[in-house]
């Protein structure tokens, strides 16, 4: 497998799945989570699931607790309050690494990411990738039911990230991805302060700095039909500021490297 390729490679093998944990952050996802979890358990029955709930007032955490009492592949991590996407994923990653999972997955609770496509990402890591990104913007990737303005914003943001930061991936903001545990252990050992959706860019940047093999696997991305989006102007501003700072830092380092 070549680094940062867009080819998902061979079809999933019949070999046993390495111990895998799907981390799903939740905040007020009581209406969306049941359908997503049911599809996920059917699509990848061997995988374990960790719901990381930020004290959802709509009872998401309590519903997940009830499921976990009946299904030993479902676990719940309760946090004190709403602290953002990045900290929720990091808490879930550390929980999973402490328990020996070899592949750790990021996935949304609202079924924007199709659970049925997760086996292709898991297979990419099994076959050599350190990070497999479910990409909307490589050949074969698609988004469904997005307005033109959102399409342009996402494509433009990813082009900005790609040019400024030189990550070499087409969908650095994607939230459907699988990490090999060895890579994730090195990444989370550092201080990660990004909160919102720029967390995905930050994790991609850190994977590149670790010289990870990154593979983009085409996926379908569906607009949520239940619950409310967590995107806000503050999250967009945070992403724009941090990506610009990271990109300028990289360019400065490159310049000084040439002058030496």
Order of helices and strands: EHEHEHEHEEHEHHEEH
| Helix coverage percent | 40-55%
Mean pLDDT reading: 85
The rounded Rg comes to 18 Å
Q: Please state the overall shape, judged from the principal axes of the Cα atoms.
A: globular
List the helices and strands and how they pair.
Layout: E1 20-26, H1 33-43, E2 48-53, H2 60-70, E3 74-78, H3 85-98, E4 103-106, H4 118-126, E5 131-135, E6 142-144, H5 148-165, E7 177-180, H6 181-188, H7 198-209, E8 214-218, E9 220-222, H8 233-259
Parallel strand pairs: 1-2, 1-4, 2-3, 5-8, 6-9
Antiparallel strand pairs: 4-7, 5-7
Helix pairs in contact: 3-6, 7-8
Notes on the protein architecture:
With 260 residues, the protein is an alpha/beta fold. It has eight helices and nine strands. The chain has helices at 33-43, 60-70, 85-98, 118-126, 148-165, 181-188, 198-209, 233-259, and strands spanning 20-26, 48-53, 74-78, 103-106, 131-135, 142-144, 177-180, 214-218, 220-222. Strands 3-2-1-4-7-5-8 form a seven-stranded mixed beta sheet, with helices on both faces. The chain has a two-stranded parallel sheet with strand order 6-9. It is globular. The two termini are 35 Å apart. Residues 1-10 have low confidence and may be disordered.
Can I get a quick summary?
With 260 residues, the chain is α/β, with parallel strands linked by helices. 42% of the residues lie in helices and 16% in strands.
Sum up the structure in keywords.
seven-stranded mixed β-sheet; disordered N terminus; about 260 residues; two-stranded parallel ribbon; 9 strands; alpha/beta; single chain; about 40% helix
């Amino acid at each position: 497998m070549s680094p940062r390729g867009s080819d998902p490679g061979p079809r999933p093998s019949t070999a046993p799945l390495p111990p895998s944990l799907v981390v799903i952050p939740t905040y007020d996802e009581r209406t969306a989570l049941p359908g997503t979890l049911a599809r996920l358990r059917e699509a990848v029955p061997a995988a374990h699931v960790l719901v990381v709930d930020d004290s959802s007032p709509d009872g998401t955490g309590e519903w997940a607790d009830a499921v976990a009492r009946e299904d030993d592949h479902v676990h719940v991590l309760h946090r004190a309050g709403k602290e953002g996407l990045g900290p929720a994923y990091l808490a879930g990653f550390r929980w999973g690494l402490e328990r020996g999972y070899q592949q750790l997955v990021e996935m949304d609770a609202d079924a924007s990411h199709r659970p049925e496509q997760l086996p292709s990402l898991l297979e990419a890591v099994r076959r050599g990738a350190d990070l497999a990104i479910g990409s909307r913007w490589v050949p074969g990737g698609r988004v469904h039911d997005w307005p033109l303005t959102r399409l342009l914003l996402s494509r433009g943001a990813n082009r900005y990230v790609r040019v400024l930061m030189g990550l070499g991936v087409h969908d650095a903001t994607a939230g459907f991805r699988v990490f090999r545990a060895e890579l994730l252990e090195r990444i989370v050992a550092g201080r990660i302060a990004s909160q919102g959706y720029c967390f995905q860019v930050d994790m991609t940047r850190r994977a590149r700095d670790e010289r990870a093999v990154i593979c983009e696997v085409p996926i379908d991305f569906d607009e949520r039909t239940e619950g409310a989006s967590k995107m806000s102007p503050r999250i967009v501003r945070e992403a724009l500021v941090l990506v610009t700072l990271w990109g300028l830092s990289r360019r400065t380092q490159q310049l000084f490297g040439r002058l030496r």
